[in-house]
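Morning F.,

Quick status update on the modeling queue. The single chain you submitted on Monday has been processed. Sequence for confirmation:
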Amino acid sequence: MIIHPFCRWKTSYIPAFQLGSFVSNSVSFFNHFEVDMPGIMLKISGRETHDQTVSFADELTSLACSVLNKEASQTMVIIQFVPHEQWFIGRRSLAELGKNSFRLEVTITDETNTKSQKAQFHRDAFELLSRMLGNVHPHSNVHIIDCRATAYGYGGITQEYRYQRAIYAEVKAVAERKVQS
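Structure tokens below.
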């Protein structure tokens, strides 16, 4: 059995079969300890309106929570509007093409979502934004960015550190329960 390096503390208190099961479920564990914060960046063609901005932020947060299992309280959304005259596809501006467009970038911690979840998010996000904007150019796109946990974080702390700290706390709690019984 392979034991993760950060699980070496007090592992003798936990039977190997329990520790292996615990570590193998680390993807679901990762999402339960406030370590997975999605960052959502949306660029939309057109002019800004406050109501539309709030609506986009709310809908995208809800979608990230429902499809990618993220927490609304951990979700950051930034929305930028780009005039149709400054957005080009195939050397022609959206103003010339008479179309709307968007670019959605969602940054998540690598290995916290399955391929199926990401594919579902792509479909649902494209459909949502197409419906909200209307008359969308087919080259509008969604980009999910899987960042390594050591390269992504917030508050000056990496996601990897949060993950290891949570694992250590759980291993310690299991060991303490074992000692008490």
